[in-house]
Each structure stands twice: as C-alpha cells, then as structure tokens.
Design brief:
The protein is α/β, with parallel strands linked by helices. It folds into 3 domains: 142 residues, Alpha-helical ferredoxin (Fumarate Reductase Iron-sulfur Protein, Chain B, domain 2, Orthogonal Bundle); 157 residues, 3-Layer(bba) Sandwich (FAD/NAD(P)-binding domain), CATH 3.50.50.60; 154 residues, FAD/NAD(P)-binding domain (3-Layer(bba) Sandwich), CATH 3.50.50.60. Helix content is 39%, strand content 16%. Strands 3-2-1-4-15 form a 5-stranded parallel sheet, with helices on both faces. A 5-stranded parallel sheet has the order 6-13-7-8-9. A 3-stranded antiparallel sheet has the order 10-11-12, with no helix packed on it. Helix 18 links the parallel strand 8 and strand 9. Helix 5 runs antiparallel to helix 6 and helix 7 runs antiparallel to helix 10. The chain is globular and about 85 Å long.
C-alpha cells in the first residue's frame, strides 16, 4: 500500500506533459532587448519551474541524459524540482556539472538534452531542461547553498593549469575538491576565456562568470593573469613548478576566408569583434572600438558563417546599432551548425539570412569595404562529415552592400609545439594536441590536455566534461606516483636498517 501511495503522489506531481504545455521563461520584447546587452530571458518563478519540471515523463530510458555530454541526472533533479526539493536538486545537478548555471544559459539544449527528450519526440514539446537547470542553480546561489570548497584534507601536490576557460575551470574545481593545490595561468587580464570575452552578455551576463571565478578563488585556487606561455615561461618551467600540468588553452586561430579581398581594411575576425564588444561592456577602453574599426554602429554588416559564433556576431551588431545585418551561409537553415533557438532569436531581432549563399570576393575602395560578391549554392552529395556539400550555382552571383565584414568561420589550434617550446609534445595533423583518449595524458609525462585543444572547436559543455575527466586521471596518476614514492622510501629505509652492521 505504501508503494502504491508513493506512486500516486509521484503521478500527482509528474507526468503532466499532456495537461501542461512546454513553456520557456518570458523573453524580453525585441525593441527593448536590442537596445542593451542584458540577457533576453527572465528567470523562472518557483511556480513555473515546478510546473515545467512536472512535465517530465520519468521515462525508463532517459534519452535527455544520454543526449547530455555530462550525463547529467536530469530526470531525478526534475523530479526533485517538481517536489520542491531544490537543495537536493542542486546537489545532484552540481555533482556532474561544474557550472550548471552557465550551461543552463548557453548550451544548445535543442540539439542536446531537450532535442532528445522523449515527450519532444511524441509531439508534446520538450521539458524546458535548460531553464529549470538555470533556476535551480540561481536559487542555490541566492540561498547560500554554494559555499567555498573545503576538501577533506589538503594534499601536498601542486597542479598547474594553462587556460582559464571552461575546461580549465572545471578541472580546477574537481582537483580542489580532492585537496590539490591548484594554480591557473591565463593569457588574458580576466579569467573565463571565451565565457568572458567570446560570448556576448545577452546570452551570458559577465557577473555570472565572475561569480564562479570568485567562488574558485575563495576555495583556494590561485589565478595568474596575463601569463602567456612562450612569453612568460615554457612547458618545462611549468613542469618544474608543478607535479602535474593540464593544457586547456582552447583554439583561437581564426580560419581564413578563401576569397579575394578577405584581408582588407573593414574585414575583421569574429573573436576580435566580440572581444572588443565584451571588453567595452566591462568598462575597458578599446581604441579599435572607439575608432569604429570594431564597432558596427551605423554600418551595413555582413557576417560570414553559420555557427553559434556567427549568431553572436549578428546579434551583437544589431545591439551596436548597425544599419543592416546580413548573415551569409553556404548551406540551408536545416544544416546550420548553430543553435536553432539562436537563429530564431536573430531573425526576430532583424537579422537578414541569405541561405545557400557563399562569398566569392570582398569589394573595397581606398575608404574601406563596400560590399561582398556572393553566389548562390545548392546542396549536393554528402561530404566526409556526413553533411551535404554545398556546390556553386552557375550564374548565381549577387552583391551584398557592406561597410563591415565579419569572418565567423571557426577556429584552429595555435602552433602548440612552438608556443610551449616543447617539440616532444605531439600534435595531430589538424594541430590539436594528441592526448590519450581515456586519460587525457599527452606524449610528455605528467602533462595532460583537455577541451578544444584536443577535440577541436566545440561546445562549452564538452570542455567541462573533458576538464572533469582529465582531473580524475591526473588525480589517479599523482596518487600512483605517491604510492610508488612511499614504497621506494619504505624499501630504502628497510634496506638501510638491514645493511647497518650489528653493534656489540
């Protein structure tokens, strides 16, 4: 009878996907949100978060969980949220995710957990997992449930992490939880990597990132800013200072635009453009922004690319007051690599999309860029990635007027062997660091790598996963070494006693 009563109570709180429609948090009106860089989604109120969590079907095979790179225990913390057990929900959510409030904001849930949701496949609309995840963690911050890390015991080993992006931060948290002494080295003046300088504030307010950084500092993690490997030190220097080193520097080398005029004045890299915008928003004085070189105000802007970075650029240009913003993408909307939700938001905000269009040349005069010569494309046979290749249509050329062209074609690794002054650090043919697929250890002993510098440009959630896994294997390696040193010392002590002459 007890089990029956429990089942009835669960049914009262859950399985409401038939009677309650899917609903995202309220979105700010277009006219208001395009006038500033604040986040466009409001927070769920408690009633709505509980209500949306109650739509979970608690299916036997949780495809939402398998669709999440971190394997987050989504059905369980949705159940806890529906039942009002928010502190438990946060404890479970944070057990597998180092920064759930960030993933809840910027993960492309429509391609991951929500896209795999069973009730989404049944036509009832996915549970709004990302919004609930964000609500749980924001509640945890507000209620003071998130406190500095206090490891069970402090360990003597020191770990050096190169890169303060999501992979490095996730690894630092995991290692600090185990008691290791952790120092993060980063080339920028603020920690956070792309979270702070690459992703616009309308998707991720910078206070959310800085709050997580301050949490790590309060937990005993040391940050060394403005430290660039190759200028301030080498890999050998870091290995000498630490028992283990993790390389988590990401990929920052912009892919070129292979057409005439692509390097002229008025043609800029996406990351340069976004960084200037974010730094200006943080109160920094950026000459290239003030001069207009990296500012879209009053300009006709053309963004080339179809990923999330391209969406960040077009939506940033709208907020800077561009006269017109056009996105050129060589495939159709269904084949865009970026989040479908971000594309919809961009369209709502007035971005013009030229699907199946690719640049052939950038036109300019002595005064700067005047336009992009583009051509119509069609989708042909699948390429090596399984996606349909785009092919140029004969006679499909057309002009797109432009005063600013932004290249958002993705990123490749920097030359890490030269950067770290370490020829023994093996790289792949794509320039990414070769690391063991399971442990993350590189060709250099006690040096590990994680995130985009290993897998190539990818999502923040994958970087978090990689950082956490690398931290676990670094822990295992250091404990093994400690045991071996202990055994060697014990053997030496025993041998010393055995060899001493007996005294009479």
């Amino acid at each position: 009878m007890g089990d029956e009563g429990s089942s009835v109570r669960m049914a009262e709180r859950l399985l409401k996907f038939v009677s309650i429609d899917a609903q995202m948090p309220n979105k700010r009106e277009v006219a208001k949100r395009t006038g500033d860089f604040h986040e466009i989604y409001a927070e769920f109120i408690t009633q709505k978060a509980n209500e949306q969590a109650s739509r979970c079907s608690q299916c036997g095979v949780p495809f939402c969980q398998t669709g999440c790179p971190l394997q987050n225990n989504i059905p369980d913390w949705l159940k806890m949220t529906a039942e009002g057990r928010l502190e438990e929900a946060y404890a479970l959510s944070s057990a597998t995710n180092s920064m759930p409030e960030i993933c809840g904001r910027i993960c492309p849930q429509d391609r991951l957990c929500e896209g795999a949701c069973v009730i989404e496949q049944s036509g009832h609309g996915a549970v709004t997992i990302g919004a609930v995840e964000r609500y749980i963690t924001e509640t945890a911050w507000d209620q003071g449930w998130i406190t500095p890390i206090t490891p069970p015991r402090e360990l003597a080993e020191h770990v050096g992490i190169v890169g303060a992006g999501p992979a490095g931060l996730a690894a630092a948290e995991a290692l600090r939880n185990k008691g290791y002494q952790v120092t993060i080295y980063d080339r920028y003046d603020r920690a956070g990597g792309l979270l702070i300088y690459g992703i616009p504030s309308f998707k991720l307010e910078k206070v959310v990132v800085s709050r997580r950084i301050e949490h790590l500092k309060a937990s005993g993690v040391t940050f060394v800013q403005n430290y660039e490997v190759g200028r301030n030190g080498t890999l050998a220097d870091l290995r000498a200072a630490h028992d283990c080193v993790l390389i988590a520097i990401g990929v920052y080398k912009a892919r070129p635009l292979p057409c005439p005029g692509s390097d002229g004045e008025g043609v800029v890299e996406a990351l340069d453009y976004l960084t200037a915008s974010n730094k200006t928003g943080l109160g920094d004085y950026i000459p290239a922004f003030e001069s207009g070189a990296l500012n879209a105000q009053g300009k006709r802007v053309v963004v080339i690319g179809g990923g999330d970075t391209a969406m960040d650029c077009v939506r940033t240009a709208i907020r800077q007051g561009a006269a017109k913003v056009t996105c050129l993408y060589r495939r159709d909307r269904a084949n865009m690599p970026g989040s479908a939700r971000e594309v919809s938001n961009a369209q709502d905000e007035g971005v013009v999309f030229e699907w199946l269009a690719a640049p052939k040349a950038v036109h300019a005069t002595s005064k700067g860029v005047t336009g992009v010569l583009a051509t119509r494309m069609r989708l042909g046979e699948a390429d090596s990635t399984g996606r349909q290749a785009s092919e140029e249509l004969v006679g499909g050329e057309f002009d797109v007027p432009a005063d600013l062209v932004i290249k958002a074609l993705g990123y490749d690794p920097e030359p890490v062997q030269t950067l770290f002054d370490e020829p023994a650090l093996k790289v792949s043919r794509w320039g990414t660091i070769r690391a063991d697929a399971i442990t993350g250890e590189t060709s250099v002993q006690n040096v590990f790598a994680a995130g985009d510098i290993v897998r190539g440009a990818s999502l923040v959630v994958w970087a978090i996963k990689d950082g956490r896994e690398a931290a676990e294997h670094m822990h295992q390696a250091m404990r093994k070494q400690a045991r071996q040193l202990g055994e060697a010392a014990q053997y030496a002590a025993q041998r010393d006693v055995t060899l001493k002459p007996a005294s009479f």
